[in-house]
Write a structure and sequence with these properties.
single chain, about 180 residues, alpha/beta, Rossmann fold
Length: about 180
């Protein structure tokens, strides 16, 4: 068990399970985009570790960029998504794969889909390490899912609780 700020968290998903899930996603994406050079867009801050490991498993030509979005305060989604740092390139006619650490409400993805639709991308796909189907509030397609999890608050592997826990190599869930 670990303590972050005022909350306790218990072990949930091992580093080995995470690596296996990311390797599986990378292989699926690589199969789907074998004939082109996709642009992977990591959603900061949470997805930095997922993107790093994904890139280690993806062997074909590709590009990577990041966008910073925010929708959480503490352990609760604010249901409002803010774009904090945008993309630095024109993506019209390109295939874009969003790489997320976690999809729960889907609010961030709706905002991203609108943003990329305005850029006239060729394909818009979503890959996420963790997916909470019970929490999804939006009709958005998740193309690649690493691990489906219950609607519990988790930290580790890029995910945080008020800034702490991102550096953990495994994932912990909030102790009930």
């Amino acid at each position: 068990m670990i303590q972050l700020h005022d909350k306790q968290f218990v072990p949930f998903i091992s580093a080995q399970e995470i690596d296996f899930a990311i390797a599986k996603i990378a292989a699926l994406v690589e199969d789907d985009f074998a004939d082109e050079v996709p642009v992977f867009v990591g959603v900061l801050n949470g997805a930095f570790m997922v993107v790093s490991d994904f890139m280690k498993h993806y062997k074909s030509p590709c590009e990577v960029s990041f966008i910073k979005m925010a929708s959480y305060e503490g352990t609760t989604s604010t249901n409002e998504v803010k774009q904090l740092i945008g993309l630095d390139r024109d993506l019209s006619g390109r295939s874009v794969v969003i790489i997320e650490d976690i999809v729960d409400t889907g609010n961030t993805l709706v905002a991203l889909k609108d943003l990329f639709k305005k850029q006239n991308v060729k394909h818009f796909k979503v890959a996420t390490l963790f997916f909470k189907p019970e929490a999804l509030k939006n009709d958005i397609k998740i193309d690649y899912v690493g691990i489906r999890i219950p609607n519990k608050f988790i930290v580790g592997f890029g995910l945080d609780y008020d800034g702490l826990g991102r550096n953990l190599p495994e994932v912990y869930q909030l102790k009930e």
